[in-house]
Amino acid sequence: MTEQEQPRSRDADNWAKPTSELHVGHELPEGAVNLNVEGRRVTGVSGGFGKMWQKTYVCELPGTSATPEQVIKVWREHFPEFWPKGNFFYAPLTGVKAGDVVPLQLKMPGGFKLRTGIVVVYADDESFSYIMPEGGMFGGMITFRAHRNAGTTTAEVQALIRASDPMYEMAMMFGGHRAEDKQWLHVLRQLSHQFGVEGKPTVSRTVVDKKRQWKHFRNIRKNAAIRSGAYMLGAPFRAVAKPFKRGGKADAA
User: Which end of the chain has less neighbouring CB within 10 Å, N or C?
Assistant: First the structure.
């Protein structure tokens, strides 16, 4: 192998392997629901419906001696711990790595629980990125990175996304952008606390493409919010049926 080939080979190892269908490959904790993930495909930004946004959330970590590599190591290993209370990111216990398919449970207004997931498509010592499956809120990629800026270690979240379908696009127009900003600003503050500093994250937004892609209107057929609602409505029926299922298994044994 030549010297020119080696960097390409190492970089290739940091990308998730292509797959036609998603499958969760790690054990989930009790109570976790793998819904709207298994068997789905991923959705890139070109497959989304709404306006294309680039959002950048930046948080300096002044006073810490942590390197970008150390920040990313902690971020990957403890990623679920930084999310707002009531949101669950069912990652492997060892932390996220390229190729992981991770179910999510997100707290929404009115006690509603949105169940979807993410796929970690890239991970190295200084960054990691994920995209969502069909039916998730966004088509596109969200990247988490750390770097040095004027001698200060800085953590950053950057999203290049479109709302997946008309329903999500409307939700983004009526409070969705604020909710998303609140989430990632919270994550960055919690990350800064991990290194003993009080980070003051900022956000910037840019509309990359104002056009809505009406050809992807039908994405709504796999909308995870609609399917999560149907799952919640079915809870009483599952509760009634549960003893009979257990009985059937016991009798068969």
Answer: C
**What confidence score (pLDDT) does residue 246 get?**
57
Tokens matching residue 171 = 């939700």
Q: What is the pLDDT of residue 245?
A: 66
**Which of 51, 204, 182, 55 has the alpha carbon at shortest distance from 106?**
182
- For helices 235-252 and 224-233, what crossing angle results, to 10°? 70
**pTM of the model as a whole:** 0.88
Closest CA to 196 of 71, 99, 68: 71
Q: Where are the alpha helices (DSSP H) in 41-165?
A: 68-77
Sites in the chain below the pLDDT cut of 50: 1-8, 248-253
* Side-chain half-sphere exposure of 243, counting CA atoms within 13 A: 2
- In the chain, the domains with their CATH numbers are 26-210+217-226 (3.30.530.20)
